[in-house]
Design brief:
Elements (H helix, E strand, L loop, with lengths): L1 H32 L1
Length: about 35
């Protein structure tokens, strides 16, 4: 049961940060080119 919670906590922490990290560089590059 402890492993299940650890995996879920890691998935949730890694999932949200990965999405914004990809969007941040994308928006910054678009703004710089514009």
């Amino acid at each position: 049961r402890r492993k299940g919670t650890s995996i879920k906590s890691t998935d949730i922490l890694i999932a949200p940060p990965q999405r914004p990290i990809f969007f941040v560089p994308h928006l910054t590059k678009s703004s710089s080119e514009n």
